[in-house]
From TrEMBL:
Keyword entries, A-Z: Zinc
Name of the protein described by the UniProt record: LmbE family N-acetylglucosaminyl deacetylase
A single GO BP: glycoside metabolic process
Source organism of this protein record: Allonocardiopsis opalescens
Matching SUPFAM superfamilies: LmbE-like
Length: 237
């Protein structure tokens, strides 16, 4: 089974800036190289207390990082649905109706607006509350319906992040592997480095070694050098 990425209009849903690169940075590199269109809908960003030397990453810093990453990948457009400290790391307090509405129809990058052929969202198994509600809202926004009345992307995937494995219950293995070439992995690592407030030295879930190791593991499972793993929720061939 192969996908012609040059023909795809891809919408990536990212709870926060860097989730899109962690989850499907290699796929975005591969698709952009082929000529596919990539749109990234961030859900929220704000000032964040962290383990950086300053102890805080500001929203302005994060916006500047997004601009660099967007240029690196060649995204067609990106947007933040719920910016500000009232929402950042608090998406679980937002009415689910509002979150679903933004993904489905009320954002400049809503599914009904740009009519993507591929939608890629986080997986419900993440320990992070923003990721969990984003995944559930995406499922609701992409619910089965009459294709004559509502746009249905042909391919719906959930991406994984290394930290998703931190669960008390079993995490299902990916059921779709996207083969990557070494330069796609290098591009993903470079893009992650542009998120200077978020990247960390090893051992960390966002370290270069972690990202390369996960790509090598998924590649091995598919009989190739590198890959990214996804959970396929819909495939209309």
């Amino acid at each position: 089974m192969t996908i012609d990425w040059s023909r795809q209009r891809i919408l990536v849903l990212a709870p926060h800036p860097d989730d899109e690169t962690l989850g499907c940075g290699g796929l975005m590199s591969k698709a952009a190289e082929a000529g596919g269109e990539i749109y990234v809908q961030f859900l929220t960003v704000g000032d964040t207390a962290d383990f950086s030397p300053a102890g805080l990453s500001t929203a302005d810093e994060r916006y500047a990082e997004i601009e660099k990453v967007a240029e690196s990948y060649g995204w067609r457009q990106w947007h933040i649905a719920f910016p500000g400290d009232d929402y950042h790391l608090k998406l679980d307090a937002l009415p689910r109706f509002d979150l679903i509405g933004a993904i489905e129809r009320h954002s400049p990058l809503a599914i009904n607006t740009i009519e993507p052929t591929v939608v890629i969202a986080p997986h419900r198994t993440s320990y992070n509350q923003d990721h969990q509600v984003a995944a559930e809202a995406a499922l609701a926004a992409l619910r089965p319906s009459n294709t004559a009345l509502k746009h249905h992307p042909s391919l719906v995937l959930s991406y994984e992040e290394a930290a998703d494995q931190w669960r008390a219950d079993a995490v299902p293995p990916p059921n779709l592997l996207v083969e990557l070439q070494p330069h796609h992995v290098d591009h993903k690592i470079h893009a992650m480095s542009l998120y200077g407030t978020q990247v960390h030295d090893h051992p960390h879930t966002r370290s270069e070694l972690t990202l390369r190791s996960l790509a090598a593991l998924r590649g091995m499972q598919g009989g190739t050098s590198f890959a990214e793993g996804f959970h396929c929720l819909r495939w209309l061939g």
